[in-house]
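your task:
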Amino acid sequence: MQREILWTGIGGQGVQLGTELLAHAALAEGRHAMFFGSYGGMMRGGNSETTLVLGDAPVESPPTVGSAWSALVLHPAHAAGPLARLRPDGVLVLNTTLCVAASDHPGPVVRIPATEIAAAAGSTNAVTMVALGAYAAATAVVRLDTLDAVLPDVLPPYRHRHLAVNRAALRAGHAAALPLVDAWAVEHTPEEAPV
């Protein structure tokens, strides 16, 4: 089983770091991961996107996906591409502080004021940690304690002074979302469904 996760935001929101953290947490829980990140040439304000594929078995091809199981949209500026690739039943995490789009998405939507929650946790720069915490709560894709445990390994040493804020943002995001789906529940086709 594989789960495809698209992230989009702008430079400075931590999209690349959040994706790396999720990948490391999945690895720590015995999953496999492969991701690809892209970002504009600007330090802040340019596009920042990632594609992450998690699986029970090794991910054998580059993470270029035509459709995805989930998406996290942190800023509306570059949301159109990931939203177009999100399956109709896919899970969407939407930063409602900045985004009003995708209100018509037919699948599960986690509407979370991530920027506001990040500010309350100590830094608006932690918006991705809030969204990741909410995503983990909504999908059970990884456990919160695993994200917390691998954070020091992923966060560059010169940013370790921000560990407490990032951990607070992860916890606040997790507390702000309800469980919606189990990412690793066995899916059955109609022919295989248990009676």
The chain has one domain: 2-175.
